[in-house]
Design goal:
By secondary structure, the protein is α/β, with parallel strands linked by helices. Helix content is 31%, strand content 11%.
């Protein structure tokens, strides 16, 4: 009867024969069942990849034919400007439109991701959430009509509308270093509080008040994005920031009202300090005719010495030439540090936006 030879301890004191393990490893390595190529293993996220700039352009129900043409044109111009001037790749600019496209629509509306229903918006935001990293950028631009029911504002969508609070919840937890929201509808001021969070710039066309008339803000935003002004009211360093964009759009809006000899029924607000309260920062940065605050001049005191009057006037003129300063806790501070107009991510061409549907 054959007897098995006792195992001898190896150098580490184990009684396992190391040669058997080496043989087993060699067999497994040559086996066709072993993962021999990188494509068999799911790739790990590349945290060192270049940041991605994403945009979601949402147009709700546009209304009659005149308004449909207006909003379709604005969407087209905004999408094109983001790709050609602001560093967004065409595949990362997603468009949702409130009605089916027509043959005469531009390519970006024709190739949109479909209707802007509540469920489809939620699906798009979830897809963006899964793809985003802390180094990416996200711009959300909302156009169309909205209404206020006395408690909440609602964006008019095909199918069920979406309230300001529900819209804000869609974007909770989004990881993106740069987050910019433009809500350009009537009653849009009510969206600022639900959207507010530290590190996010939220801009509305109206105050959180009874400003429920149709706005001209989306058209003005499209025009300014397509042709940014060469000089800004904010700074002289040649950098066009989101804050400069905000001021430039306000100037355009006020000019449209003045040209039509109408009283402005919309007053844009900005929140970027995370407190949920919008500010009309244009009041201290723009002249009265462009939306700035009217300051009453005090009559000079005739009893004062003339030399003192001259010195005071000189000091006042000097201060007037200096732009107001913003602190870290002020609305406008963050947006003034977010540049607009990065080098294009793709060459200018007839390429349309939307990416995979």
């Amino acid at each position: 009867m054959n007897q098995r030879r006792p195992l001898l301890p190896n150098k580490r004191g184990s009684t396992r024969p190391r040669s058997r393990f080496f043989l087993l490893a060699l067999i497994l390595a040559s086996s066709p069942m072993a993962p021999s190529t990188a494509q068999d293993v799911p790739p790990k996220p590349n945290h060192f990849a270049a940041p991605t700039r994403r945009a979601l352009i949402i147009c709700g129900l546009p209304g009659d034919e005149e308004h449909r043409s207006k909003y379709a044109g604005a969407v087209e111009k905004i999408a094109k400007a983001l790709v050609e001037q602001d560093g967004f790749a065409s595949k990362d600019v997603w468009v949702r439109f409130g009605v089916a496209p027509k043959p005469e629509d531009g390519p970006n509306v024709k190739n949109s991701r479909g209707l802007s229903t509540k469920n489809d918006l939620a699906a798009d935001v979830e897809a963006i959430r899964k793809a985003s990293t802390g180094q990416d950028a996200l711009w959300v631009i909302v156009l169309g009509h909205a209404h206020y029911d006395g408690r909440h504002a609602h964006l008019n969508l095909p199918g069920p509308d979406i309230s300001d609070t529900a819209f804000g919840k869609l974007f909770e937890g989004i990881e993106a270093r740069e987050q910019v929201f433009f809500i350009t509808t009537s009653a849009s001021g009510f969206f600022l509080k639900p959207l507010s969070r530290p590190g996010r710039v939220s801009i509305s066309a109206t105050e959180a008040d009874q400003e429920v008339n149709e706005t001209v803000y989306p058209v003005a935003l499209a025009e300014v994005l397509a042709a940014p002004p060469t000089e800004t009211a904010r700074d002289k360093d040649g950098t066009f920031s989101v804050f400069d964009l905000y001021l430039a759009v306000v100037v355009d809006v006020m000019k449209r009202y003045a040209d039509d000899e109408l009283i402005a029924t919309e007053h844009a607000q900005l929140d970027d300090n995370g407190d949920g309260h919008g500010s009309e920062v244009q009041l201290i940065f723009l002249p009265p005719e462009s939306g700035g605050q009217i300051v009453e001049e005090k009559k000079p005191d005739e009893k004062k010495d003339k030399d003192k009057d001259k010195a005071a006037k000189k000091e006042k003129d000097s201060e007037a030439k200096k732009p107001p300063t913003l602190g870290p806790k002020d609305d406008g501070f963050l947006s003034s540090r977010v540049p607009v107009g990065l080098p294009p991510a793709t060459p200018k061409s007839a390429e349309t936006v939307g990416g995979p549907k």
